[in-house]
Amino acid sequence: MVEENWRLDLKGLVIRRRSPRRTYVLRVRGAEEAQLAALEAVLGAVLPRISNRAGGDRPRVLALAPGDWMLIGADLPDQDRVAAASTALVDLADVTDGRIAFELSGPLAADLLAKGAPVDLHERAFPIGSCAQTRLAQIHVLIDRPADAQGDGFVLYADISYAAHLIAWFDAAAAEYR
């Protein structure tokens, strides 16, 4: 079992396992703009219409693909209430127990992630408010660059079953910074 409060604190790089926050996946098929607006009113959140964009705080909304979002950090209305807000096909699934999050901060955070992910994380290519699904250490992850990370931080989401694998990878990849 992976330590709940795991943390790696080095000069220029801090990585910490974040305690679980409510996490949902929202999938909407066949929705018109008015139906999306009705869903936003029920959810209390703006749904970015462009993939790989993120916004909000509670909940944080990450646009994964057209009609697919991940919502993090707030309790949301139940599936029936969300589905009733639109005539489109809507599915809201609570995936909190199946996800893990790591916060990476410091001027070396992007360099560390670049060792294992093929995404350009430089601020001009991946500005605040960006997110991307990619592979890191050979597993599927979602990387977010929230505004509260002050430009040099990221939040990485993955399936909880990969927690030990990611911690081992972070530890090995950060060896040169010790």
Care to describe what's here?
The chain has helices at residues 33-43, 79-84, 109-114, 163-173; strands at 7-10, 13-18, 23-29, 54-55, 60-65, 68-72, 89-94, 99-105, 130-136, 139-145, 154-159. The chain is of the alpha+beta class and 178 residues long. It has two domains: 7-20 and 98-177, Probable tRNA modification gtpase trme, domain 1 (Gyrase A, domain 2); 23-96, Alpha-Beta Plaits (2-Layer Sandwich), CATH 3.30.70.
Please give a handful of descriptors for the protein shown:
six-stranded antiparallel sheet, Alpha-Beta Plaits, alpha+beta, five-stranded antiparallel sheet
Nutshell version of this structure?
The chain is an alpha+beta fold and 178 residues long.
Gross CATH architecture of the largest domain: 2-Layer Sandwich
List low-pLDDT spans: none
Q: What is the overall shape?
A: elongated
CATH homologous superfamily (4th level) name of the largest domain: Probable tRNA modification gtpase trme, domain 1
Order of helices and strands: EEEHEEEHEEHEEEH
Q: Taking strands numbered 1, 2, ... along the chain, how are they ordered across the largest sheet? A: 1-2-8-11-10-9
- Domain unit count: 2
Give the distance, in angstroms, between the N- and C-terminal Cα atoms: 25 Å
In CATH, what is the class of the largest domain?
Alpha Beta
Note the topology.
Blueprint lengths: L6 E4 L2 E6 L4 E7 L3 H11 L10 E2 L4 E6 L2 E5 L6 H6 L4 E6 L4 E7 L3 H6 L15 E7 L2 E7 L8 E6 L3 H11 L5
